[in-house]
């Protein structure tokens, strides 16, 4: 399975984290896709996956998807042929490109046509190779950019370990005002976003230091203790850390977003 990331044009750097592509073969196994603090637009150019729903039912996904912020993992069963192109937005980038109140899409996966119509999906589907798809996105997205993210939201994103009250004090607003603005533009509360990024950071530490035990990873990632980390993992990923890591090889491993 081949996974690659590509930088957007400078005009999009404030809104788009990266473009990514994934190619390979699915083996039919169910893959957990973890929350990572980002919204994404995803295009399946070969066989779309099935999403496993509660009650054991499955739903075939559209070729073009808009994935809102997630607060728990999603279970996908890849098709036999994987050829995927994705646009990963910065935490407030989806708001910059749509103007939508992002909390309204949190926990939802929408057909991409509901966001920008059919044009982008058609252009990407007709492009020949990843380089052409990047060029398509680089041409399509800048005209949809709106106002920049307010400084107080940027401050909360840059300093996730700083208390919300302190960021609000520095910005000259109330905690409630900051939380409302953050939810509108990021789709999560500052506390939920910080929990997700802390989990992703702990996964990053696990990859960098496979010899570390989970107690050390918990301390280095900023958890109170290992029990605190286990509780967050169960809430966000549906499994404790060791079991989750065992389930990630394949598509889920590439789409679990470790920190950079």
Automatic annotation (TrEMBL):
Keywords: DNA-binding, Transcription, Transcription regulation. Residues 147-247 form the HTH araC/xylS-type domain. SUPFAM superfamilies: Homeodomain-like (SSF46689). It holds the Pfam family DUF6597. One of its GO terms (molecular function) is DNA-binding transcription factor activity. InterPro entries: AraC_XylS_family_regulators, DUF6597, Homeodomain-like_sf, HTH_AraC. This is Helix-turn-helix transcriptional regulator. It comes from Paludibaculum fermentans. The lineage of its organism: Bacteria, Pseudomonadati, Acidobacteriota, Terriglobia, Bryobacterales.
């Amino acid at each position: 399975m081949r996974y690659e990331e590509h930088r957007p044009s400078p005009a999009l750097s404030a809104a788009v984290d990266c473009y990514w592509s994934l190619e390979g073969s699915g083996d039919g196994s169910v893959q957990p896709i973890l929350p990572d603090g980002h919204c994404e637009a995803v295009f399946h150019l070969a066989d779309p996956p099935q999403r496993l729903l509660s009650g054991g039912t499955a739903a075939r996904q559209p070729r073009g998807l808009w994935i809102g912020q997630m607060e728990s993992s999603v279970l996908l069963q890849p098709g036999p042929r994987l050829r995927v192109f994705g646009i990963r937005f910065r935490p407030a980038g989806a708001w910059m490109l749509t103007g939508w109140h992002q909390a309204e899409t949190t926990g939802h996966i929408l057909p991409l046509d509901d966001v920008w119509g059919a044009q982008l999906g058609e252009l990407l589907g007709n492009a020949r190779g990843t380089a052409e798809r990047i060029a398509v996105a680089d041409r399509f997205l800048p005209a949809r950019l709106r106002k920049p993210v307010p400084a107080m939201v940027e401050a909360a994103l840059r300093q996730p370990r700083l208390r919300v009250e302190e960021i609000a004090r520095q910005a000259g607003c109330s905690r409630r005002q900051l939380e409302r603005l953050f939810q509108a533009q990021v789709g999560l509360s500052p506390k939920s976003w910080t929990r997700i990024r802390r989990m992703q950071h702990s996964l990053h530490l696990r990859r960098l230091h496979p010899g570390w035990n989970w107690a050390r990873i918990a301390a280095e990632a900023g958890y109170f203790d290992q029990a605190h980390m286990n509780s967050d993992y169960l809430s966000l990923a549906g499994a404790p850390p060791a079991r989750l890591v065992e389930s990630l090889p394949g598509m889920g491993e590439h789409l679990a977003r470790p920190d950079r």
